[in-house]
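Structure tokens please, single chain.
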Amino acid sequence: MDKVFKALADDTRRRLLDRLHENNGQTLGELCERIAMTRQSVTQHLAVLQAANLIGTVRRGREKLHYLNPVPLHEIQERWIDKFERPRLAALGDLKRRAEEAMTDKPSFVYVTYIASTPEKVWEALTDPGLTAAYWGHRNESDWRPGSRWAHVRTDGSGVEDVVGRVVESEPPTRLVTTWAAPDDEGREDRHSRVTFEIQPYEDIVRLTVVHEDLRDEGERSGAAAGWPAVLSNLKSLLETGRTLPQQPWLVPGR
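Here you go.
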């Protein structure tokens, strides 16, 4: 939390976060626009934000894209704001969000977690049908080659597919990009969202960044914001302890 407050104390870093809030997934060059300082200085500010887990980075080809990670800000809100003024501020926040959404592109969600594991094991956990069945409640089935179909299949033996899509990029064990759609929308690419998994090793740990973009509306973004932390917490528990969480985390009721 100290790193978060330190990062937010600087006006330039707040402006960088505002820029990412306006248009998530920008390169260093794009973030340097309209900021009167050198690229090196901007890079240093971004490093502080990344150290505070306020942003995450994803490589797309030769570019490095920067994404806002809202989780630390949400924790500040829960600890310092919600318990005092939650009802009134929730109404004001909803009004502000609706006004902002009318002026922005499709919403996206970014989640960053750190796992005591290896890139190979994290990759396997994301792509192996048996492992995904253990911590996700669905089997992720595909050969994971670019262009191949993938499906999120129920584990109750019904064979029902709840999510389908295509593999866009596959670079084991560091990068996987897939499209996501409801089965009824499989043939309508304009209704597909996109999920990027970036697996970055650092000594004995792995940073896993998940970017879910091209979501249709705030309802889909809220669903992603509720679902991804639960699923990835279960994945983290499985890899670090050999066991999933005692209860399915996505069934925990909201406040």
